[in-house]
DUF943 family protein
Amino acid sequence: MIVSWVITKKFIYIVTIAILFCSVVIYLWSDRPVEIVDVHYYSGKDINILARHFPITDRGKLNWWRENERKILEKYNLPENDFSVYIWDFGDGYKKLSPYDAEDEFYCFPDI
């Protein structure tokens, strides 16, 4: 009976430490500020925003947009009338097209 208590206590201790560690990592990872890398505006109505560290949840994404919409429109001199906004996860950044890649798998902005 004593042996099973020690194993159970050790197991609970390890699980608690793992949960705390994961919680800290998730908190620090999700608390990073969104970095706007580039903004492309063309064709009168399409705005493409390239961002890093974008929120994971849909609610977080909407909250971020609501908090930052005015700043983005002013900073990049974007129109305030009807427009579509596309926010792209910039990830590893711009990549050179390799000779082995199919061109239809990539998206390129007309102003690049």
Remarks:
- The chain has two helices and three strands.
- Residues 1-31 form one domain.
- The mean pLDDT is 79.
- The radius of gyration is 22 Å.
